[in-house]
Amino acid sequence: MGSGEPGQPTGRIGVKEDKDLTNAEKIVFGLLRSGKTVCTAESMTAGGLGYAITRVPGSSRVYMGGVVTYTRGTKKLLLGMPDDLLDTGLVTPAMTLAMAEKALDLFKTNYAVAVTGNAGPISNDQSAGVGRVYCAVVSAGGRSQVRDFDLFGNRDAVREKAVTQGLRMLRNFIESTEE
Predict the structure, then answer these.
(1) What is the pLDDT of residue 124?
(2) Cα(109)–Cα(29) distance, rounded to whole angstroms?
(3) Tens digit of each residue's pLDDT (9 = 90 or more) over 79-114
(4) Do residues 55 and 24 make contact, with C-beta atoms less than 8 angstroms apart?
(5) Which DSSP category does 57 fall into?
(6) What Rg do the C-alpha atoms of the chain give, in angstroms?
(7) Beta strands in the chain (DSSP E)
(8) Contact assessment for residue 85 and residue 142, using Cβ atoms and an 8 Å cutoff
(9) How far, in whole angstroms, is CA 124 from its chain's centroid?
(10) What DSSP assignment string belongs to 95-118?
(11) Whole-structure pTM value
């Protein structure tokens, strides 16, 4: 059952069991086993997803990179988002899905995850109130999923919860695709 990867479940006492692994570890170890790759496109999490994934040993073999597009200008510059989509709002399901799709194409990976939202303390975008977060996951095979979350807490708490939700969603998406 073990593959020699640090933290990889082996069923031996003193070694992490599968239930003890973090979502990031499950993502990385699963992708290592399948030989597939992932990338990220982030706005309000400002690289938090990429950071969480790359904390796991072996992640350099499966994480191909990410983009942080925190503003309208960087969404247009780095991901080529069209003005008509940008005009509908920076925090929308359509924007999040488009971010994931553009990252997938940019990094040529098997999977991409994107997160955008409003961490507060105020809303300056008519499309989403404070705490509203959208996550999108896409696969090179054409599958996609977008979910919305209403998260509570201060700015840092909302951002941390958005990373947690994004990782959980990515893990579940990959596991359902691989079965």
Answers:
(1) 62
(2) 16
(3) 999 999 999 999 999 999 999 999 999 999 999 999
(4) yes
(5) T
(6) 16
(7) 38-42, 63-68, 111-117, 132-139, 144-150
(8) no
(9) 23
(10) HHHHHHHHHHHHHT-SEEEEEEE-
(11) 0.86
Cβ count near 117 (within 10 Å): 30
Q: Is 149 helix (H, G, I), strand (E, B) or coil?
A: strand
Q: Please tell me the distance from the alpha carbon of residue 167 to that of residue 171, in angstroms, as a whole number.
A: 6
For residue 130, the one-letter residue type is V
The dihedral of CA 162, 166, 168, 169: what is its sign? positive
pLDDT at 61: 98
Helix/strand/coil for 1? coil
Which domains are delineated in the chain? 22-178 (3.90.950.20)
Give buried/exposed letters for 18-27 (b at 16+ CB in 10 A, else e). Answer: eeebbbbbbb
**Distance (Å, whole) CA 61 – CA 39:** 12
Q: What is the pLDDT of residues 127-143, one digit of tens each?
A: 678 899 999 999 999 99
Predicted confidence (pLDDT) per residue in 44-61, tens digit = 999 999 999 999 999 999
Give the strands of the sheet with 63-68, arranged side by side: 63-68, 38-42, 111-117, 132-139, 144-150
Q: Which residue has the tokens 């780095």?
A: 78
